[in-house]
Design a protein that fits this description.
about 450 residues; AB_hydrolase_fold; disordered C terminus; binds alpha-D-glucopyranuronic acid; Multidomain esterase; Rossmann fold; single chain; hydrolase
């Protein structure tokens, strides 16, 4: 009895804390609607680390791209784990076709084989991927990405899947998940789609959706993550460049694409990635190292994602590496106080995705995510896209995304979170930029 009372008290305190935190958030200042800050440096086609400026598209691809990939690993994210074989352990249909746009909801449990056993139950990472396909034969374009609180939180409203096993693993969730806060409060503060993409509307729009919890591979908890990161770090990697969790989650994205590309219901030419915040960082990094994703939507990815580091606006490197030391290579923290030691900035990460499409979403009250720094990162990547004869980033408005070209940006009102208008922006962008998609019914709104 005493223990239950204590648990209730703790839940209430946590809840109250988050409510008060949430109220405080709503008072965060709006960032200006006119762009501030200086251009991204170094110029993306300019000299880099003692090597000559880029002379052509071929020079970019053969010389600069490999150099940038090496530097992003050795300076920021740590060594990217080696590609690995994926075994499908089980496929379970959680929901068969019923009324509405959904075809099937399936749980695909897969294991990734490593060259040495690690701290996972069974010695290797096991991931439960939820695959939601629209009605019809397909093959369907697919939107893939990890969610913050995992599969349990994916089906908040619909009772059926709740009774079915949406996950088989038992890896710890981030402390913020399950803070005893009722779902309606999470939605009020962090948005209607904070934990669950609008999967019915996505299917109605003609896309399949794949979702999993990146914590299945590396738990998103400082300290606890280390043995998993050590197990994923390639042999011979200097200790200060050990694989970070963002790199591990990016690698996981690619392993998921290995499975999806082999699925006859999925169109391997139209695989798209999305991610919010920390998972937006991972989605951008995944596409930088994997040529298959044809488009990426990074929502509020901030530091280590789409926003520039050098402008010292938003989350400082010192803060992110102190709060989340497992996310990056230890060396990244050492550059916090030495901007001169940094050869890179995030416009170069976006440049590695060229000529593929990138949508960056931000919120006016999410200064921490540095919306202006993200806009200037797209401006900084623009010259590479022009090397491909593409229109680059011609957008001038901070709020209205470009209607032409592979790069676009929007800043909606409000806080750090995922709202239906974010998904409406993303689906409109995917439809516009991923050319050979089958025609979809025009202007389907996401509003129920
Ligand atoms: C924290 C962190 C950010 C991150 C965010 C998130 O706020 O400081 O870098 O993007 O969490 O993932 O929600």
């Amino acid at each position: 009895m005493r223990r239950t009372l204590l648990a209730i008290m703790l839940g209430l305190v946590a809840g109250l804390g988050t409510v008060l935190g949430g109220c405080a958030l709503t008072r965060l200042p709006n960032v200006p609607l006119t762009l501030t800050g200086s251009p991204a440096t170094p110029p993306i086609l300019g000299p880099l680390d003692g090597t000559a400026a880029v002379a052509s598209r071929a020079d970019w691809e053969s010389r600069r791209v490999p150099r940038l990939k090496t530097l992003f690993q050795s300076q920021i994210y740590g060594a990217m784990p080696a590609p690995a074989r994926v075994d499908i352990l089980s496929r379970v249909v959680l929901q068969a076709p019923a009324k509405g746009p959904i075809g099937t909801i399936e749980r695909i449990t897969l294991a990734v084989s490593l060259d040495r056993p690690g701290p996972w139950p069974g010695g290797r990472p096991v991931v439960d991927m939820i695959l939601i396909t629209p009605k019809g034969k397909g093959p369907f374009p697919i939107i893939a990405g990890g969610t913050f609180c995992g599969n349990d939180a994916l089906f908040p409203k619909t009772p059926e899947p709740q009774t079915l096993k949406v996950r088989t693993t038992n890896m710890p969730l981030p402390p913020e998940c399950g803070g005893g806060l009722p779902a309606f409060m999470v939605e009020a503060i962090f948005g209607k789609n904070a934990n669950s993409p609008p999967w019915e509307a996505i299917a109605r729009h003609g896309y399949a959706l794949a979702s999993w919890h990146p914590g299945d591979v590396v738990p998103d908890v400082p300290g606890i993550a280390e043995p998993y990161l050590a197990a994923l770090t390639p042999d011979g990697t200097p200790p200060d460049q050990r694989t970070g969790a963002i790199a591990a989650w990016a690698w996981t994205l690619s392993r998921m694409l290995d499975v999806l590309a082999a699925d006859p219901r999925i169109d391997p030419e139209h695989m798209l990635l999305w991610g919010h915040s920390r998972h937006g960082k991972a989605a951008l990094l995944a596409a930088a190292f994997d040529p298959r994703p044809v488009a990426v939507w990074a929502l509020q990815s901030g530091t280590g994602g789409a926003s520039l580091d050098r402008d010292e606006v938003g989350e400082p490197i010192g803060a992110i590496t102190a709060s989340f030391p497992h996310w990056f290579a230890p060396v990244y923290a050492t550059t916090a106080a030495r901007p001169d030691a940094r050869l890179l900035d995030q416009h170069q990460l976006i440049g590695l995705l060229a000529p593929r499409s990138v949508l960056v979403g931000t919120g006016r009250r999410d200064q921490w995510g540095d919306p202006h720094g993200s806009f200037r990162a797209l401006m900084g990547a623009d010259p590479v896209y022009r090397l491909y004869g593409l229109p680059g980033f011609a957008q001038t408005s901070l709020t209205k995304p470009a209607e032409v070209g592979p790069l676009a940006f929007y800043m909606r009102p409000g806080l750090h979170g995922i709202h239906s208008q974010d998904w409406a922006q993303a689906l409109a962008f995917f439809d516009r930029t991923v050319p050979k998609l089958p025609p979809t019914a025009p202007n389907i709104s996401l509003k129920p």
